[in-house]
Design brief:
By secondary structure, the chain is an alpha+beta fold. About 35% of the residues lie in helices and about 20% in strands. The protein is built from four helices and three strands; from the N terminus they run βααββαα. A three-stranded antiparallel beta sheet has the order 1-3-2, with no helix packed on it. A hairpin with a 4-residue loop joins strand 2 and strand 3. The longest helix has 10 residues. The two termini are about 15 Å apart. The relative contact order is 0.24.
Length: about 110
């Protein structure tokens, strides 16, 4: 299982709404994430909008590609895009570039 960590930046004026949206993620989105191999997925939000994502998956690129093929992901990404800074016209899930893991204590 591969551990993946990524960063995004939520617009400061949208932080509260972002929290609210993630307190009620659509059931079909949750099902799609599970079906496409996203495990132990968490999002952490700093007060200045820095978002840290963490998940475990067998193959991150395959999991991302499988989600990209779902209709629910297209709807979710379209709704979430305005919450983020610096996307340059890309979907938030396209900007989820994983960080290099340099240490792990099990």
């Amino acid at each position: 299982m591969r551990r993946v960590c990524f960063l995004l930046k939520v617009r400061p004026e949208r932080l509260e709404e972002y929290r609210e949206r993630h307190a009620a993620v659509w059931p079909d989105m949750l099902d799609a994430l599970r079906r496409t191999g996203w495990r132990n997925y968490s999002l952490f939000l700093r007060p200045d909008g820095l978002l840290v994502g963490y998940l475990e998956t067998e193959d991150f690129e395959a999991a991302r590609a499988a989600m990209a093929r779902t209709e629910v992901n297209a709807r979710w990404q379209a709704e979430m895009a305005p919450f983020f800074e610096e996307l340059d016209g890309r979907r938030p899930d396209e900007e989820m570039l994983s960080l290099e893991e340099v240490f792990h204590l099990d």
